[in-house]
Specification:
- The protein contains six helices and two strands.
- By secondary structure, the chain is mainly alpha-helical.
- The protein has a two-stranded antiparallel ribbon with strand order 1-2.
- The mean pLDDT is 90.
Length: 149
């Protein structure tokens, strides 16, 4: 499980891991499923926040068991920070976007102009959706209150 907070009584959490997720088909269809702008990483956070923007909650089943195979990827750090930039852009977090861009540029040579051209092709979520979802960027890549708090 990702190290994020969830209410131990109800299971309510800020987002659900895409490694093992169960979502009602009507909700999945109403948010148009996973955003294809994401290649890997953060797509589950985006999906969860879209669900929350619709007024639903996300839950963790801490006792559930599943197997998730993840290969070591040579470009993992690059892909993580690229996805983080996209997530911050879509959910309008200026500060985290600046940080994620800085981290991404450690792995890739990309000009600010080229980055803005790419991001301007991607529509951010509405201010209303951002206010409803309450995206968490203050904990870095955890996107949730830390589990140990």
């Amino acid at each position: 499980m990702h190290p994020k907070y969830f209410d131990p009584k109800t299971g309510v959490t800020a987002w659900c891991s895409g490694a093992c997720v169960l979502i009602p088909v009507n909700i999945y269809q109403s948010i148009n499923g996973f955003d294809e702008d994401f290649f890997l990483y953060c797509e589950d956070v985006d999906l969860s926040w879209c669900v929350k923007a619709m007024g639903y909650q996300c839950f963790t089943c801490a006792n559930a068991l599943f197997f998730h195979y993840a290969m070591d990827r040579k470009d993992r750090e690059l892909e993580v920070w690229k996805a983080a930039v996209l997530l911050a852009h879509k959910w309008r977090s200026v500060n985290f976007k600046q940080y994620a861009v800085h981290m991404w540029k450690q792995y890739m040579d990309l000009s600010d102009e080229d980055l803005e051209i790419q991001l301007n092709k991607i529509q951010p979520h509405s201010i209303t959706d951002v206010e409803k979802a309450i995206p968490e960027f203050n904990q870095g890549l955890y996107f949730s209150k830390a589990m140990w708090r």
